[in-house]
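Can anyone check this?
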Amino acid sequence: MKKETMYIHGAQRHNEFGAEAEPIYRTSTFIFKDVNQGANRFAGKENGYIYGRLGNPTLTTLENKIALLEGTEACAVTASGMGAIASTMWTFLKKGDHLLADTALYGCTFALFTSMLTKFGVEVTLVDFDNIENVKKSIKKNTTIVYFETPCNPTLKVIDIEKVSKLVHQYNKKIKVIVDNTFCSPATQLPRKFGADLIVHSITKFINGHGDLIAGCVCGSQTDIAKVKMEGIKDATGSVMSADDAYMILRGLKTLGIRYDRQSENTLKIAQYLEKSPYVKAVNYPGLESSKYYDLCKKQMSKPCAILSFETSLSFEQTKKFVNNLKVITLAVSLGGVESLIEHPASMTHATYTKEALKKANIALTLIRLAVGIENVDDLINDLEQAFKKAKK
């Protein structure tokens, strides 16, 4: 099946009643026919469901569909994107291990790495992956995980997945290369195709696409995902998705293709408008021909991503006034939904960063992140223009 068909029919199961939509199995536990069956399932000698924290049929359908779309053997869904990242870290890291990550990370990921993992004896190094030499120089004998987002939040820096994966695996095949694919989704980028071992998502964003739930996932080999489920999720975080949320995501996934096409198209038009605006100092969007990441974007993505950031040429106070005067575009964090959202990274999503860390990640005080929805693009551009003019008064 082509991807557009897989969004709807991929990994779809029909129960004994022939239900066209996936049933919601709203149960905390599952019945065994006898003691031997229960014992065999707990021992891993027999497949089947035991307890809601260990699996649920509705979640299984969603996991199979996402794995199919990402091109991986398996997937584990979680209660949040941070649940997916934390569960993965607690599974594969131990005291004395080294985590190497890019400087530009989602604020909560940054906090997990620099404030939490270090408490338990994990060594963490952040370097700019834009220069592959930085990665090469920073890998150590105890490096266990190499982690990065691409495109990065909120700078839209694009990292060469294939180049990093080859370098890391040549040094040591056991090192896990983990890519956060939230900003792209499987609608346009497949990190496994370029050598990544594990892929994490905030499903809250593009995969669900409607801003009405919190969820995450991690995709990879059967062996790795089984380990994440039985250690990271079951024992460490308990970050379990509900059957109701899994059902909602399965419904949202059906329109991922057409949503992303419209969002990507809208984002490019807005980026082109911003690039010519006298109120804008710089536009970060890899889909622009003027972007240093344009060729890499074409290599890694089937279409440009549907989010951008830009630095205004206004003062900080005028920049705040600009955001406050938007009428159609909503001031809120998150991204990937059908509505356009705008936020100020330095004071919101990346508030966990120190001033020094913000500088290293190239997150300026006047940087604005815009997640583009499926509205009429002319309405969005007109909204930006009127807000810029009011900010200048």
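Reply from J.R.: I decoded it. The first strand starts at residue 74 and ends at 78.
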